[in-house]
Structures are given as C-alpha cells and as structure tokens.
Amino acid sequence: MNNTSQATAKVYVPRDSAARSVGADEVADALQLAAVGGDFDVEVVRNGSRGMLWLEPLVEVVTPQGRVGYGPVAPSDVEELLAAGMLDGADHPLRLGIVDELPWLARQNRVTFARIGVTDPLSTEDYVEHGGLAGLKAALARAPEDVVTEVTDSGLRGRGGAGFPAGIKWKTVLGCTDELKFVCCNADEGDSGTFADRMVMEGDPFMLIEGMTIAAHAVGASEGYLYIRSEYPDAVATMRAAIGIAREHGWLGKGILGSALDFDLHVRVGAGAYICGEETSMLESLEGKRGTVRAKPPIPAIEGLFGKPTVVNNVLTLATVPVVLADGAKAYQELGVERSRGTQVFQLGGNIAHGGIVETAFGVTLRELVEDYGGGTFSGRPVRTVQVGGPLGAYLPTSMFDLPMDYEAFAAAGAMVGHGGLVVFDDSVDMAAQARFAMEFCAEESCGKCTPCRVGSVRGVEVIDRIVAGEHRDENLALLEDLCDLMTDGSLCAMGGLTPMPVRSAITHFPDDFLGGRRTLEIQPVTATGTRTEGTA
Amino acid sequence: MTTSGSDVTVEHVVRRVAARHRGERGALLPVLHAVQAELGHVPQEAIPVLADEFNLSRADVHGVVTFYHDFRREPAGRTTVRICRAEACQALGANSLVGYAREAGLSLGETTADGAVTVEQVFCLGNCALGPAVEVNGRLHGRVSTAGLGAILNGTVSS
Lengths: 537, 159
Ligand SMILES: Cc1cc2nc3c(=O)[nH]c(=O)nc-3n(C[C@H](O)[C@H](O)[C@H](O)COP(=O)(O)O)c2cc1C
Ligand code: SF4
Ligand code: FES
Prior knowledge:
The complex is a heterodimer of chains A (537) and B (159). In chain A, 38% of the residues lie in helices and 15% in strands. Chain A has 22 helices and 16 strands. Chain A has helices at residues 17-21, 24-36, 78-83, 103-106, 124-129, 134-140, 144-154, 166-174, 196-203, 205-219, 233-248, 279-286, 315-327, 329-333, 366-373, 407-412, 431-445, 451-454, 456-468, 473-490, 494-498, 500-509; strands at residues 9-12, 42-45, 59-63, 66-70, 95-98, 182-187, 223-228, 264-269, 310-314, 336-337, 340-341, 343-350, 356-361, 383-388, 395-397, 421-426. Chain A is globular and about 75 Å long. Chain B is of the alpha+beta class and 159 residues long. Chain B has 7 helices and 5 strands, in the order ααααβααββββα. Chain B has helices spanning 10-20, 28-39, 46-54, 58-67, 87-90, 94-103, 146-158, and strands at 79-84, 110-111, 117-122, 134-136, 139-141. Chain B has a 5-stranded mixed β-sheet. In chain B, strand 4 and strand 5 (139-141) form a beta hairpin. In chain B, helix 3 (46-54) crosses helix 4 and helix 6 packs across helix 7. The longest helix of chain B has 13 residues, at 146-158. Chains A and B meet through helix 1, strand 8, strand 12, strand 16 and helix 17 of A and helix 2, helix 4, helix 5, helix 6 and strand 4 of B.
C-alpha cells in the first residue's frame, strides 16, 4: 500500500439514517478495517448529514485546506479511494472539493442547520466549540419576560405548519400561575417529504435540548416531553443518549449551568398514528390515551398536558431558539420577507435529482428550489407538479413556480408552506390517483372524532373512483366539490379541514387527469438514471 | 420472544413492565411498547392486566391498543418489511414495490403462512429524498428497486 499518511487522518462519515440507508455504516466499517489493517492511520468520526442527500454517503477528509468531500461513496469504493490518496485529499472521480465551498451549500443561509453535518452529534466539546450553549447562557442571565420578548421580537414562527408566532404562545404560558408547567416538543413529523426534524434530532440533539431548556426558563416549566414518532428509531436513540450526556454535564436536571433553573426531559415514542402530530392529539397520546383531537378552547398554553399550561412547539421552532438568544432578535428578524421572518428549512424530496435540506431566508421561489437547488427530477423527465407542505398541502403546477415561499403568499394562492417539505413528481404522475390518495390517507389516519373527516374521506375515495370511471362525471365532480366544502367547514382539525387542499388543487390545475384513462404514461420504474448508489439491499 | 417453554406468563410480563414504569406520568404507551418488545405483540390476555394496573376499564385499554397502528394483536413474521407508500416515495414508484410484493404472494398487512415475513405499508420513514424507502426489521433502506426488494424478500426465506 502506498500513500500512508504520517499523522492520523480524520475522516467524517455520516450517521444520519438517510446516509445509513444507502450504506454509510458499511463505508465506515471499510475505513475502520483499513485502519485496523495498519495500512492507514484513520480516525473515523460519525457526523450528522450536511443534507446533500444525493451525495450520501458523503465522506469528508480533514486537510489543511479544509474538509474535502467524496461522494456518493459505496463500500466497494473505499479501497480504491484510499489507494488514490483520499486521506490527503487527492483527486478521484468521486472527489467533490472543499465541502463548505460547494455552491449548493455556500448559497444557503444556514442558521438552524449551521452545525448539522459539521460536528459529531454527541460530542459536548464539538457542541460548545461550535457555539452551543451561548443561547442558554444568554437566556439564563435574563428574566423570563425578557427571553419571551426576545423570541417575540425575532419574528420566529412555529415551524410545525401553522406558523403561529412562538413568542406569543410562550407569553400565554408565562402568564399562568400554576406550579407545574410543561414544555412539549412535537417531533411527530408525519408529513411525507419532511425530514428536517429527524435530521436535527440525529444531527444536533443538544441544540434541541438547549432550545427546550430556554423555553422552560422563559415560561417557568420544570418538565419537558419529547414526542418522537416510532418510525424514527435512530432519532429516539440519539436523543436518549444526548439527554443522558446533558444530565451528566449539568445541562439538564437541578440547577442547570449553576443557575436556579430545574428542568428535566423525557422521551416518549409515538405508535404509528399520523394524527398524533396534531398538538392536542399528541397531548392525549402523552397522557396514555387514544390520540383523538381535543376541541379548542381551552388552548394547550392554558390547559395542556395533564391540564397544565404547556408550550407545544415543533422541533425546528425549539431548535432555532438558541441562535435567536445567542445572536439577538434583530439578527434573525433581518432575514426573510414581510411577515415571514428568518429562515425556513426547505426539504426537497420525491422525484428530485438533488434532494435534501435547503435552509435559506423566506422569499426564495419554488423554481429556485426545484430547478436550481433540486436540479429537476431524478428520473430526468419533466417536472409536472410539486406538493408543498405535506399530504394536506396543494399540488402546484410549474406555471406557479415563481411564487415566493412566504406563508401569506402561499395562502393567497390556495396553498400552504406548512413544514417546508417539497415533493416533486415527474410527468408520469396521475393526479386523479394523487387526489384519491389524499382522501384514502385521511380515511386511514382520521382520529374518528368528526363525521365529515371520518366518513367524508371514505366517500371522497368512492366519488373520485366514479369520476375516473366516467360515471356521471359532472354530477360527481359537483358532489366532490360539495364534499370538500363540508370537510373544510365541518372538521374539528386540519386533518379533515385541509384534505380538500390537495384534492382541489389537483382538480383545478390538472383537470384532464380526471377525464378517466387519459394518462397513459407508465409510472416511472425506480431504476436509477442519476445515481450510482443502489441502496444496501 | 420469551413466552414459549417457560413459566413467564403474559400477566407476569405485563406486571413487571408496569412496575418498571411506575411513577411515570401517563405511562400506558411506553408500557404497551415494552410489552410488545418482549412478547412480539400485545396479546388479548394483557388487556385485563393493563386495565388493572392503570385503573382503567378493559374497553379503555382496548381502545388505546387498537387506535395505534404499531400495536399488534397477533405476532408478526420473523422479518417485518415496511414499504413506504407516502407521496415522496410514490413519486419514485413505491406502488411498483407494493405490486411486486403482491405478485410474490405477499399482501400488505399479512404474514406468510410459514411465519417468515410480514409485509406492511408505512407512511413516511423520513427518507423522502432517497426514496423509495423500505424498512426491514428496523433498518432503513433507501433507493430500493424492485430487484432490491426481491433480494430482501428472498433473504427472509432462509432466516
Ligand atoms: C393533522 C395534523 C398533523 C400535524 N402534524 C404535526 C407534526 O407532525 N409536527 C408538528 O410539529 N406539528 C404538526 N402539526 C401542527 C401542530 O398541531 C402544532 O401546530 C405545532 O406542533 C405547534 O408548534 P409550532 O408552533 O412550533 O409549529 C399538525 C397539525 C395537524 C392538524
Ligand atoms: S378532522 Fe378528522 S382528525 Fe381532525 S378531529 Fe375531526 S375526525 Fe379527528
Ligand atoms: S415519503 Fe417515503 S420516506 Fe418519506
């Protein structure tokens, strides 16, 4: 073997579950094996993912010039890469250059995701070295009211979908005089096309713990719950490990960082119910009940978990709080447009060439996200539609691609930004089938409390089937329209209330697909055109 | 599985698990997860014991167990294959994976007669940029082709 480096080379291989799903563990093993063999002096660090998921497994080597990336690396590439001098950052067809300088990353404005993919998620040294705890220290030095004001002034809006200002919610909880209050983190992330919460938990868990602790100080809470969906076993394991480490370091527990704050955190695992992402349903589930939606009022801020005042925020909302406190409201506020301040973490998924995380200020257009960052479809066929904001979000045609990402602009266009997930489809998609699926999903996942949602969605599937079959098409389209109205007006929560959004947008923008049998294109088989990774299967 | 060939009864397991979680607020879900982890499913005999432990009616406990997709009333196969059928994976042909499984004689939600494999649908595994995604015994796989799924399913026969 040639090219043996003198000093130990530090190599990063992500431990993010998306990276693992395409072979990151095997790549790390192959590197370790080379080290054990004594041919190479390698220290493998398992970092989070940079969010350039089409390049995973993305291996980074520390060099004097910076971290040089290679990807996507298959386990079978490792030997050849080492021989070629990867540990010195040498040239190779898989070499990507200095990772921080890749245009895809350099163009972004990473605030919440600043550390993710850069550090070892469970290293407290890494965390502090990269700015961790600065927000908590700043918060603990101030009165709770001042912390709430800072968060309000930053313009930070809930990232879980509805975009409610975080500071206003906190103020309500702070104003309650109860002895016992809770901070609950909604980590249910059930929407298709969203994975940023997962990446935060797997890639920078201390940031979320820090954010929840700041929230506890701000509102006077002593206990926190993290409700993580069961589909995310890696996130559950990482958060549990991080909480244990945080306790050992006095970042959780009694007298946090030497202050008067007592706060502890528990992880709870969901059990496969989409509706448990709805905040009141999540609270019911945390109480050990069926996850049915509660009527509001009372709002959870006043009567939440076990009837006590409760902050319920999404992972990204809470994870962004430390940086708001560390850098101040103004710095955050200056990013974004109109009433959509700060950054949004867009998640590019589905049939897309360059899928992953794009964190950038609000106001970026769909076209920039899908075409520039995303590089068009994975299949190489034309883009036909993008569903924005999860299964309850609208399907938008390419003619609307200049719409800026902004809560209000989207609402005005009959769509929603939601959690910032974008799911791209190529021209083989059958929009009647997608509309039918929206109804089917609602029928499957309805909590069952109200009739328009529970029964209406079942009827919705049937009516769409009749439309596609050409039975009394006009009457049935009118019936579907009526059903959508009923679901919108008569549902207790957005599950039934927003299911009409994907259905209506499909009919409005792609009416031809409802004419029955019009679409003759075969669903694109998954044989890759744009990638060399074939998964680990 | 710890039930077979020993005196570890369902009641014993449930009481032990419940004791471990005593003092936790609203612990029914963590207890159900733990029971399922030990027994492979939540058997009918567990319901009255849970009702007793949590001071609930049997109907209440039954209601909780049946509300959540995760809790099984019957044991699963030795391998559980969960195919993501949510939108991002649909955009990359998830339905062709379901079709492929079906052609191999495996219907969603069912366990093969020899107890080798259970194939299920799941809505989103958080791997939406590397779909279609499939989870096999808790392990996530990305960019799964029909051939890849075939290899996974073939692998279950010998296991
Ligand atoms: C059907 C439904 C599903 C939801 N799923 C989630 C979810 O998975 N994660 C989440 O954070 N919020 C979800 N929400 C929104 C929550 O109800 C709530 O608004 C949010 O957790 C509040 O946090 P935020 O203000 O930080 O966004 C869902 C809402 C509905 C109606
Ligand atoms: S709209 Fe659907 S999910 Fe929401 S409360 Fe009603 S039945 Fe439950
Ligand atoms: S839609 Fe399949 S993993 Fe998200």
